[in-house]
Design brief:
By secondary structure, the chain is an alpha/beta fold. It is 33% helix and 23% strand. The protein is built from 19 helices and 30 strands. It is a multi-pass membrane protein.
């Protein structure tokens, strides 16, 4: 068939014009389309599971991979290689020990207090194989918080890692009195009422337990309780259902703690989904990071913002760009650190992910634009309904119109992120009291009867749909990559005999991610401030990231009109002794006390000479 040249020219011109128009008006069309296709495909997959009453969990996928690629390395840890078969057989043995000697049954909840090690995965999979739900405990939490975790998730059994037994000092007696059975990943232990596991594994069968124990037909069945500091009070157990566990990311290097959902669900879950190999680190080390990446040909790593800052601050070498890493997946990366990191270590795509452990909304920076946590468009908003509303920082609450409804912000304005609760985006909430879940939900936001999850995060969305994180509100701030619940810290400080009232908040420190803990305190009449006593109390009862670095003495505590402690002005004034007339103190680990914060000490903090 013959086509006139003029006609073909017109078609070509039309195609070119369409391409130019798309580039100018919709520059991210194809990237958005591919990303949304993956989201929709994932959603269809879940709906098919519902229709078929079948659920493919992380454990199911691991068993499939252990049968498909048994000899492939699954975990590399401290120079040792553990194949998929190794972990499968060891978790089978542990499952038989848990059934026969620990008398665990399907439906029981078991708490796990372990550091990063291969046996963390073996214990996790073993308990899942016998149908137990599992509560991952943060190894940084102290006595009172640890006991609270048991009360909230209903666990009657605790499994302690080989190097975590010392964490039970001060609470073991209380746990045993509450009839909590304690099992340690050790061959022997001094305490007669603590059971050991390592001496029982070798004699146990490595044959699989019956699949009926772990098989589930309900995609919303809770499988994990991952403790997060949430926004107020003690840590709360975020219910992780099979719906949220079905995640796949190409993640190899895992330096984050496994008790966090990022490492366990995205890191380990993604590795299993792909049938890949992960390099598991007990703890992050800036000096070992790139050596590990080069040694094991790492292509993708997980991060938090602080991790990238530590790497950028580490002494430069000629090998900084000698590696195969092409992508990082994580959150909390500041723009300046982002640029420095890429300039120094090469054009590594940093994929920022936004979402809380318990939340019902997730953003992903699939474009790779520096400083943003994600990108949205009208199709995404149809799938996941969210809004940014105006927030009164002084009153510490959303602004309302004359009808009592929230007010949406304009593009480019900072607002509180709310995520709508619906059948498509359910909110599973927290284990324990329903009040914990209800406090996270805002009702009658725009119309009577609607419900939204209050993320507690201030965000902005520009005209192109790029979403950026601005700050946290309420009673939580982040420091050293961890959420710090101010009310929990305040309760610990309130137990000190000379403190009458305390208000805990976070302040910005130059050169540091997040906010450093600071507490405004009122000293009781006829008492004096005792820096050494306060130091001993916070070191004993709080993890390192939650300890207030600064103390501000006050005579009167400022309150809001609704009788809430006022934090806004305290946060704004920071910790500069030149501008604050009240006495300020800073924590000093060498002296074991809180010492007077002088102008020279303040300057040494700003220059980085004094480490925090």
């Amino acid at each position: 068939m013959f086509f006139p040249l003029g006609w073909m020219t017109a078609v070509g011109a039309g195609i070119l014009a369409t391409h130019i128009l798309q580039k100018l008006c919709f520059p991210y069309f194809w990237k958005d389309a591919l990303f949304l296709l993956k989201v929709i495909r994932y959603g269809v997959r879940l709906e098919l599971y519902k229709l078929k009453s079948e659920v493919c969990t992380v454990l199911d996928r691991f068993i499939q991979q252990a049968q498909r690629i048994p000899d492939k390395p699954f975990v590399i840890f401290e120079g040792l290689i553990y194949t998929y078969r190794d972990v499968e057989l060891r978790s089978n043995r542990l499952a038989h020990v848990f059934i026969q000697q620990a008398n665990l049954r399907k439906g029981d909840c078991v708490a796990v207090l372990m550091s990063n090690e291969p046996d963390f995965l073996c214990v996790w999979f073993a308990l899942a194989k016998i149908g137990c739900s599992i509560a991952f405990l943060n190894t940084n939490i102290k006595s009172r918080s640890l006991l609270h975790c048991f009360n909230s998730c209903g666990a009657r059994t605790l499994v302690v890692g080989s190097d975590a037994a010392d964490l039970l000092d001060g609470v073991l007696t209380t746990l045993l009195e509450d009839n909590i059975e304690v099992w340690a990943m050790k061959s022997n232990i001094e305490h007669p009422r603590v059971q050991t596991l390592l001496d029982k594994i070798d004699a146990a069968s490595d044959q699989p337990v019956t699949g009926a124990l772990h098989r589930t037909t309900n995609i919303k069945t809770p499988t994990l309780y991952i403790f997060t500091s949430g926004t107020t009070g003690f840590p709360k157990a975020a219910v992780i259902s099979h719906l949220q566990s079905l995640k796949a990311d190409d993640v190899i290097y895992i330096p984050l703690p496994l008790y966090h959902s990022a490492a366990s669900l995205i890191g380990i879950g993604g590795t299993i989904e792909l049938g890949a190999t992960c390099v598991l680190k007990k703890k992050f080390s800036a000096s070992q990071f790139w050596k590990d990446c080069r040694q094991h040909n790492v292509t993708i790593f997980q991060y938090i913002g602080e991790l990238c800052r530590y790497l950028s601050n580490h002494p430069k070498t000629e090998l900084d760009k000698v590696h195969k890493v092409r992508m990082g997946v994580g959150n909390g990366l500041r723009q300046d650190v982002w640029r420095d990191f890429q300039n120094r270590f090469g054009n590594i795509k940093m994929c920022e992910v936004y979402g809380s452990t318990e939340g019902n909304l997730c953003f992903m920076n699939h474009i790779g634009k520096i400083g943003t946590v994600g990108r949205s468009n009208f199709i995404y908003k149809l799938l996941f309904k969210y809004d940014l509303v105006k927030y009164d920082m002084v009153r510490d609450e959303p602004e309302k119109d004359r009808y009592g409804f929230c007010k949406r912000v304009q593009h480019g304005e900072t607002g509180l992120l709310l995520s709508k609760v619906s059948a498509l985006s359910p909110f599973f909430g927290y284990a324990g009291s329903k009040q914990l879940t209800e406090k996270k939900i805002m009702r009658n936001v725009f119309v009577k009867g609607d419900a939204y999850v209050n993320t507690g995060d201030l965000m902005t969305e520009d005209n192109d749909g790029f979403i950026s994180f601005r700050d946290r509100v309420g009673d939580t701030f982040r420091w050293k990559g961890e959420n710090v619940a101010t009310t929990e810290v305040a309760e610990v400080l309130g137990l000190v005999d000379f403190i009458q009232e305390v208000n805990v908040y976070g302040v910005e420190v130059v050169g540091h991610e997040g906010r450093a803990g600071m507490a405004a305190v009122i000293v009781r009449p006829e008492h004096t401030f005792d820096g050494e006593k306060l130091f001993n109390s916070v070191v004993r009862d709080l993890p390192g990231y939650a300890r207030p670095l600064f103390i501000r003495l006050q005579e009167v505590m400022e309150m809001t009109s609704t009788f809430k402690q006022q934090k806004f002005h305290l946060v704004q004034s920071g910790f500069n002794p030149s501008f604050i007339s009240e006495l300020l103190f800073v924590i000093d680990y060498k002296l074991g006390s809180y010492v007077l914060l002088t102008e020279p000490i303040f300057q040494s903090i700003l220059t980085g000479e004094r480490k925090l």
